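Worked problem 6 (solution included).
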Amino acid sequence: TVSVTDAGTIAWEQEYVSLQEFLNRLQAYHQAEPEGRILINGDENALFNSALYVFDEARKVGFKKVFIETKLRKKS
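Solution. The predicted structure is:
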């Protein structure tokens, strides 16, 4: 699971990491689990561009199963 925050930071399995560390972990995970899955979630106010960045990088490395977790908002 990769999380993006409203501050633009990234967490890998709930551990905040730098962009370079994210890329390193992404490549290492793909080498260990080529058919693995990436789940992206984010803070309510996280920028969509941050989630797209994670999605794009996961696809570049070779992951075919990349998902974005969504939550339904309650009607006001």
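Discussion: The radius of gyration is 13 Å.
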